[in-house]
Write a structure and sequence with these properties.
single chain, alpha+beta, 17 strands, Alpha-Beta Plaits, Structural Genomics Hypothetical 15.5 Kd Protein In mrcA-pckA Intergenic Region, Chain A, nine-stranded mixed sheet, about 25% helix, 3 domains
Length: about 280
C-alpha cells in the first residue's frame, strides 16, 4: 500500500478557505489546530489530508468548497477583520450574505476607506500579498496643507518610517473638485500615490515624514482593478478577468518601462530615467 501524500498544514488550511497561509500560521501558533487529537504548534508540519483528522478552533476541517472573490468598498470607522472583541463594526457585517466564509486580503486602517479584496481562496490571497508580486495599491490622499515639489520628491526617492524604508512608485497632484468649476479646497492638496509595499500606516507615515498629516485616505485601485462606481459599504463578485487585473501595475507607461525593461545601454537608461523623474517633479508644481 502506497504512503499517503503529505502536504504542509498551513497550505491545506489556506486551500480550504480558512485563512491566508500567514493567517493559517497564526492559527497554528495560537494552538487552535489539532491533528489526530493533538495540538500542533510547528509551522512546517505536514499532514495527510485524506487520512489525518484535523480540527480547527473546535470544528472539523471542511471539504474544499466553492471559491469566492469579492471587491468591497470599505467605509471609514470599520475594522478590517471578521470579528472584533470590542464589538466595533467590522467588514464581516457587510458580507454576511456571501454563501461561504471569506476573509480580507491585507487591511485598510480604521480611518481609511476604499477598495478591499475578500476571498476564501488562501493561495490567491497569499499570491496577492507576496512581496515578489509587487502588486500596486493606488490611493487618493488629502493632506493638511500644500507640500512643495521638493517635499514630494522625497517620497519618490524614499523615506524611512517606523517599519522600514519605503518609497512611492508614482505620485501626482490631483485637481479634486466638487463641481467642474469649484475646487474642493484652496488650502489642502490632494495627491494620487502608488505604492507596492504594505507597511503599517504606510501612506500616513510617509506624508508625516515630510511634515504633513493625512486628512483623508481612500484606496481607489489594487493593480488595475479599480473601485469605479462601487458605493461605500457595497461589494461585488469579480471574475477571472478582473482578478488578472490585480497583477497589472497601475503605473504610467514610462514608470512601468523602467521597472520591466533592461536596457543594454546603462548610460542611456540612467539619462532617460533622470529626465522622466524631473518631468514628474515639475508636474507637481
Amino acid at each position: 500500500m502506497s504512503e499517503p501524500t503529505l502536504v504542509r498544514l498551513n497550505k491545506l488550511l489556506a486551500e480550504r478557505g480558512l485563512a491566508s497561509r500567514r493567517g493559517a500560521d497564526k492559527l497554528i501558533a495560537e494552538g487552535l489546530v489539532t491533528v489526530n487529537g493533538k495540538k500542533v504548534y510547528e509551522l512546517g508540519i505536514k499532514v495527510a489530508e485524506h487520512k489525518d483528522t484535523i480540527i480547527v478552533d473546535g470544528k472539523p476541517l471542511r471539504a474544499k468548497n466553492q471559491m469566492f472573490y469579492i471587491m468591497f468598498n470599505k467605509p471609514k470607522s470599520v475594522i478590517t477583520s471578521m470579528t472584533d472583541p470590542l464589538d466595533r463594526p467590522c467588514v464581516a457585517d457587510y458580507v454576511y450574505e456571501v454563501p461561504g466564509r471569506v476573509f480580507p486580503i491585507g487591511r485598510l486602517d480604521w480611518d481609511s476607506e476604499g477598495l478591499l479584496l475578500m476571498t476564501n481562496d488562501g493561495d490567491f490571497a497569499n499570491e496577492v500579498m507576496h512581496p515578489t508580486k509587487e502588486v500596486t495599491k493606488t490611493y487618493h490622499v488629502k493632506v493638511n496643507g500644500q507640500p512643495a515639489p521638493d517635499k514630494i520628491a522625497k517620497l519618490l526617492s524614499g523615506v524611512s518610517i517606523p517599519d522600514g524604508r519605503v518609497r512611492a512608485k508614482h505620485i501626482e497632484k490631483l485637481k479634486m473638485s466638487k463641481s467642474k468649476t469649484t475646487k474642493t479646497s484652496d488650502k489642502y492638496d490632494w495627491f494620487k500615490i502608488v505604492i507596492t509595499e504594505g507597511k503599517n500606516h504606510q501612506v500616513r507615515e510617509m506624508f508625516k515624514k515630510i511634515g504633513f498629516d493625512v486628512m483623508k485616505l481612500q484606496r481607489v485601485a489594487i493593480g488595475k482593478l479599480r473601485i469605479g462606481s462601487l458605493e461605500t459599504g457595497e461589494y461585488q463578485y469579480i471574475n477571472e478577468a478582473a482578478r488578472d487585473r490585480i497583477f497589472m501595475p497601475d503605473l504610467p507607461t514610462e514608470v512601468h518601462a523602467r521597472r520591466d525593461v533592461r536596457n543594454p545601454s546603462k548610460k542611456k537608461t540612467e539619462s532617460g530615467s533622470r529626465k522622466n523623474f524631473l518631468k514628474r517633479i515639475s508636474s507637481l508644481k
